[in-house]
Amino acid sequence: MSTSASSFTRYRVAAIQYEPTLGKKEQNIGDLLRLVEEAARHGARVIVLPELATTGYCWESREEIAPYVEPVPGPTCLRFAELAAAYDCYIALSLAEVDPESDVYYNTTALLGPQGLLGKYRKLHSYIVEPRWARDGDLGLPVWDTPLGRLAILVCMDAMYFEAARLATLRGADVLLFPCGWLDEKCPSSWWMLRAFENGLYLIAANRYGRERGVQFSGGSCILNPDGSIQAYRDDGEGIVYGEVDLERCRAKQWGPSGEEPVGDRLADRRPHEYVSLVHNTYLWEPLRFHGLYHSHELPPGQLSCAAFVQLELREVLAAPEKEPTGATASTSNEERLERLRSLVRSLLRVHEPAYPDVLVLPELTLPGPVDPSLPEFAARMRAGAIRVPGPEIEALVALATEFQLSIVLGVAECAYADKNAEPAYYNTVLLLDPEGVHGIYRKLHLTRADRRWASPGNLGLPTFDSPVGRIGLATGYDVLFPETLRVLAGKGSDLVCAPTLLNFPNPSGLGPTAIPFGPHVAPEGYDPWHFLPWRIRAAEHHVYLTIANWSGEASGVRANGLSGIFSPSCASYPWHEVIAEEGESTLMLMTIDTREQRTGRRSTTLSPAYMPGDVAGSLTGELAYDIRETIPGNVVRAKPLLRKRQPLWYLDLVRSAVGAPPSAPTASPATPVTR
Fold it and tell me: How far apart are CA 146 and CA 89, in angstroms?
């Protein structure tokens, strides 16, 4: 087999969609061999099969699955390896593995190539049924060098944890092979699409369809491009999805609006030294007890609050190109903009009178306003319009917060001095203001190319601030595109993340109707124009309310795509609790956020209690007494269940400043021959 890089920079791939029959292992294997051979005959060089497609998925116990487990390598691997050798291809085969030495079972995917077994991946993040029979994976997240580039494997639930795909990317992966048994979402899943988008990888998802023990699987097997878009997919039924991988495309990690200059780089713009807490298991213990240790960081009392954002229309704010502001003209420009801003915010708030929000989020760089980064004087204009904190502009905005008795979050260009004799430093800053003054300051960590021309990276980390609304984290929209940002803030107990934004990407992607017989609470019927909306998944995967306040439209060489919104800490059930701004004039939208514990004192069980009300000593109502600090809150924003199921033991590379760089060309990889 040739290993020249030029021969394999572009090649065909396939995802197989199949419905296995539980316990009919030989029948399933025969069907899968037929489908793999068909894909290989049609030129697929990488072929991915669904999760546990040889045995079925919904096993009740270790004892029940025991007749169907086998070692890896083993007899089933041998049969597929023969096809890999015959057709010079690579096959990701998911099966139930037994370790002969320990008799422990694993949900395992074997990577088979022309020379045999390259290696195996044992699923790290178990779904709810797997702990009944399988151990969490113990082999980490390997990446294999092949003549087709660097291949990595994730399995199903792994995609709900950004860490898994990010680790593969940092280790140089080009393509994610993704066997899954996804359910309860119309597919291709928006979670899969986000993993491809944020890492710039191809993702080959092989999902199953049909029902098994009452569980409806989602189908939607697909090939995803490095920008998260769908290259090809199959909604329902058995079949093969074909696509193409272009290694040059997935190795270019720049990102931004299509057809425009890149905004930045997915990997180069990361700030690993700010992510150290990602390797801490912060939600291992009961969250209220953990955050309340030593009475130093106890979470604010939960309550109902109202959050709001203002989406500013660029044409309304940047009415006409301005001359380069310097000195007094810059001050005048800021004063004029500030007065227009206060007037606009007053008018928008009074539309909703008397329902004023508790916290109001305005866009990034509200002061001095966006400037066309292509202008030669761009950096000078940004610095000339930068404000001091505190300063007169802050006083005016605090007066506005006092007038309406609310908190204001907004982005500004900040000029700061370390001491009187030092040169000024400039930051893209987010401020949290309330009637008492400046309550919080965040300086943007992840800088775009335009930011780097005038601003320094932030030096305040990723702080949180407690308020009557809850624990608030501050970021910008570009920060939020890096999943590490919200994971750090969520780990600190954030209820609400406020993100002033100035971006012209990402855009939502739609998805057509499905033939999968979902219930009414899974997805909209018919075409869904908002199927892939990154902000929605960002909020849900970290269990925070996320408020995005973006600019909208185009003026004076500046473009922004709007899509401001407030997104909920869970999107498990449709209709989703969210509000999204439409294009047009500047607008203000509100949404209730709920941080209450939602505990009743009743037992969390589906079984009938063995006692009647009044049977419990010391209780007049029959409810069980408990200390809320010793329980898991009933509200997902406080419980953060996905954080509790993380596997930080394997995440150390996320915080290293340098991880193995991708090779300049594909190389051959040693393989283990598969024998009977």
Answer: 11
Predicted pLDDT of residue 626: 57
Q: What is the DSSP pairing of strand 437-443 with strand 587-594?
A: unpaired
Q: Are 307 and 580 in contact (CB under 8 A)?
A: no
Helical ranges in 475-617 per DSSP H: 477-481, 483-491, 534-542
Q: How many CA atoms lie within 13 A of 361 on its CB side?
A: 33
Return phi, psi of residue 372, to 5°.
-60, 115
Does a cis peptide bond (omega within 30 degrees of 0) precede residue 73? yes
Query: HSE on the CB side for 134, CA within 13 Å?
Result: 27
Residue 116 CA to residue 90 CA, distance in Å, equals: 9
Report pLDDT digits (tens) over 366-384.
999 999 999 999 999 999 9
**Considering the entire predicted model, what is its pTM?**
0.93
Exposure b/e, 470-490, CB count within 10 A at least 16 = b: bbbbbbbbbbbbbbbbbbbbb
**H helix and E strand count, the chain:** 17, 32
Amino acid code (one letter) for 599: R
| pLDDT value of position 603 | 36
CA pair distance 401, 390, nearest whole angstrom: 15
Tell me which DSSP letter residue 156 carries.
G
> What's phi and psi for 599, nearest 5 deg?
-110, 140
pLDDT for the residue 87:
98
CA angle, residues 428, 262, 193, in degrees to nearest 5: 100
| Pairing relationship of beta strands 143-146 and 551-555 according to DSSP bridges | unpaired
Residue 591, beta-bridge partner list:
307
| Token duo for residue 397 | 């905005």
Contact between 245 and 213 (Cβ < 8 Å): no
Q: How many angstroms separate the CA atoms of 325 and 334, rounded?
A: 10
Angle at 458 between CA 452 and CA 463, to 5 degrees: 150
Cis peptide bond N-terminal to 506, omega within 30: yes
CA 654, CA 170: separation in Å to the nearest integer?
A: 8
Task: Tell the residue number behind the tokens 């439209």, with chain if given.
Answer: 553
Q: What is the pLDDT of residue 660?
A: 62
- Gap between the Cα atoms of 326 and 383, Å rounded: 9
Q: From the centroid of its chain, how far is CA 235?
A: 23
Q: What are phi and psi of 148, to 5 degrees?
A: -100, 15
The answer to whether 193 touches 160, Cβ cutoff 8 Å, is no
* Residue 58, pLDDT score: 98
Q: What is the maximal distance between C-alpha atoms in the chain?
A: 83
CB 154 within 8 A of CB 165: yes
H/E/C letters for each residue in 429-449? EEEEEECCEEEEEEECCCCCH
Rounded Cα gap, residues 178 and 193, in angstroms: 12
> Cα–Cα distances in Å, from 129 out to 68, 106, 347, 361?
17, 13, 53, 41
Q: Which residues of the chain have pLDDT under 70?
A: 1-7, 319-332, 599-629, 660-676
CA 518 from centroid of its chain's CA atoms: 24
Burial class (CB in 10 A: 0-12, 13-18, 19+), 519: exposed
Return the number of other C-beta atoms located less than 10 Å from residue 492's C-beta: 16
The length of the chain is 676
SS3 at position 590:
strand
Beta-ladder partners of 119: 111
